[in-house]
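Posting for a labmate who doesn't have an account.
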Amino acid sequence: MTPAAWTFLFGFAVLILFGWYFFTDSERARRILGTVLAVGITAFCIHQYFRLGITRGLDLKGGTSFLIRLVAEPGEKGEKKDITKTMVDQAVEVIRKRVDELGTSEPVITPEGDDRILVQIPGLDPKRLEETREQLKKVAKLEFRLVHPQSDQLVQQIEAGQAVVPPGYSVEPYDYEHAGKKIERKLLIKKKPDLLGSHVSRAGAGFGQEGWEVHLNFDSEGADQFGKLTEQVFNEHSQMAIVLDGKVQSAPGVKSGPIYGGSAQISGGNMGEHEARNLASALENPLQTPVSIEEERTASASLGEDAIKSGLHAGILGLALTVFCVLIYYHFAGVIANIALAVNVALLFGALASFGAVLTLPGIAGIILTLGMAVDANVLIYERLREELAEGKSIKTAVDHAFDRAFTAIFDANVTTLITAVILFWKASGPVKGFAVTLMMGIVASLFSAMIVTRNLFEWAIRIGLLKKVTMWNLIGATRIDFLGKRKIAITLSVLVIAASIGIFAMRGGKNFGVDFKGGDRLTLEAAGPRPSDNQVREALKEINLADSVVQTETSAAKEFVTVRSNEGTGTKISDHLQAKFPDARLSVQGMDRVGGLVGGELARNSLIALALGMVGILFYVTLRFEFSFAVGAIVALLHDVIITIGAFALFGRELSLVIVGAVLTIAGYSVNDTIVVYDRIREGIRSGRKGTVQEIMNQCVNEMLSRTILTGGVTLLTTVGLYIFGGPVLNDFAFAILVGVLVGTYSSIFIAAPIVLWWSGKGGRDLRTEIKRAEAPGAAAV
């Protein structure tokens, strides 16, 4: 059987086992089934990882990506034409042939949306960037048009105002060289082509009597049309204009009679080998629709390897800190949590390999972030277990109740994060989409490892007598802090910070946005010799009238890079000038991002749409699962965290980029995740009929969740610290956003979310206790 068939059978068997696991009433059967599922799926994922491996993105192995947009030509009446799927498919095939002729290996060429094509070329030498760029965007619309028999005479009369342009003709410039002299001439040629270049079946470059030339071969229909055209030229003693992309390349006559052999050649002028070969390639694979390159990103192989090392260092540090802290804090239960964490990592890498996901720099960030989030579910379970044991229950009963009661909080918290990840995948592009894929897989892996692997390990440990007593370190004991009593002070402080964040952001204006948003070039240079200072680079840029460029020094692991952000299309000019200006520095281009203003504006718009859709999805889900006042509190807390995080970026002079969009949406997911866990306890407290006012019950619940909230935030911060220290320029910004977001999110889940729920639920004389009971009544929308 083929590997695909085995994979299908394995997946089918897993579905059956899952169904059996969830519907059986036998503890023994569930324990055995859980073990089979855990061992089987983990082994399968490990096998898939070693069999298939994980494809690295261009930012990790070096290369260049181009985002190409098809531009529809206007119709005969000037109307706008739509880009069709046929146009995109034809362009994909043409570009694929052109890229193959460049001699690159394993290019990735895929449609993006309705009118774009993403071209990724691994290992592309930066020195060949300009050539590749020209090859990709060259339309090569070849046409053969008849020149009017009295062209020279009529052109003179038209320019003298003694005649008008005949219907169906146009006056076109024709510049060429003859005997070393540049000749400028104008021709009166037909507007409608007599023969299209689409009939060219083959084109090749060669060296002839007049220098380099391009040989053309036509298909059968083209050969017949070409013969008739040359016959007309011969009989009328006229010329035939060869027009490429609207420009006359040559205008030969026919001296010896009609040419019916189906072959022709373009020669003359000062065509060199490079020009001839590129022209031949374009003519053999003509694009039917014009294109423009809207985004270009280049990373050298050495920068990619450096990014991998940075990510590995960050991952190892984060994982080590997480494992150590969980082990110290939860003792034997920490061992079980760490085993589940190892399974989680195996599932995540196996899933990435199985689905052929491309691992990018933001993807590494996503993996490291899931390490912290994966521990959250176990923290929820263990804190519940602590409470159950404190009530004097047996270990077996306490474990069962802890898992059952923690399930709703774990499920709701992960689903809200999943909502933001799905929307990010839908609206994002390129590396951030890879981050969204990693995050989604990480959430699924975390749920499986916590609810099945961890529970199964506990049940086996109890069954064989390995676990007779559970001990845990208690960081924060029972507290009775009046959090809601301090809500006016907290909300006032938050309003002031939000106002300051908006003010700082507004003051910086366009400086808040990186190349990804406002368009332009971002050049990354590494110095093998003495590196010029930022001021020296700025002075050098004044010499080429680019003094407004932003120059910074960025650190990645043990290396330092000079980055220059400038206007679109100036990156190559800056690179050439700096390399010539500082020869002793031996500067080399390690990366170059070029983003058009249109793409940047669209990215900003899509980011806002993604955030808005995420909030709508969260609002709907939280209303469905809880009550509308909870949804209002969650959205307010989310906006609170996002605005303050962006404000912190502005305060520290950092720029918003494509990767930071992912970080901001992750913060949104984390904020809601943390808030939902607190909400779950509040709902449970009100359901249980506790004595006291709603405010008193909410205070009790927030105090009960304080340990969990601080533990989860602390573990996430531990994994993020590794990113911040070792992550390099891109991951450093990402880590900074997560660090700020986690700290602010922990604060808002305690001091902002619950007070907003209390305030909103009291509007109009309503009572939260009554609202929850009403929502849970038979036939109600909420659950």
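Reply:
Got it, the structure tokens are right above this. Residues 194 and 616 are 57 Å apart (CA to CA).
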